[in-house]
Design a protein that fits this description.
With 84 residues, the protein is mainly alpha-helical. It has 3 helices and no strands.
Length: 84
């Protein structure tokens, strides 16, 4: 760990075997929320268009990611040639 920095989630939960975000301590979820709210913020910029509520369960998050993947494929990937 870098002096003066806060410990990472892996340092806080070194042997955790988690299946869902609901198993994390509230402080870790708050830290993750803060990260996603600020990681692209320009220093001094007070505007924020990002939200992280609600926090999804693992099953809900997988469904969102699968839908996003399908949206991406539908927009950016070339259709496969028919090999009949």
């Amino acid at each position: 760990m870098i002096p003066g920095s806060s410990p990472s989630c892996s340092a806080i939960l070194p042997s955790a075997n988690l299946a869902d975000v609901s198993q994390l301590p509230h402080a870790v979820v708050d830290r993750l929320r803060h990260y996603f709210l600020t990681y692209k913020t320009i220093p001094g910029d007070t505007r924020s268009t990002i939200t992280v509520d609600p926090v999804y369960s693992a099953m809900e998050a997988r469904a969102v990611l699968m839908a996003a993947r399908e949206d991406y494929r539908g927009r950016f990937e070339e259709p496969s040639p028919d090999r009949s």
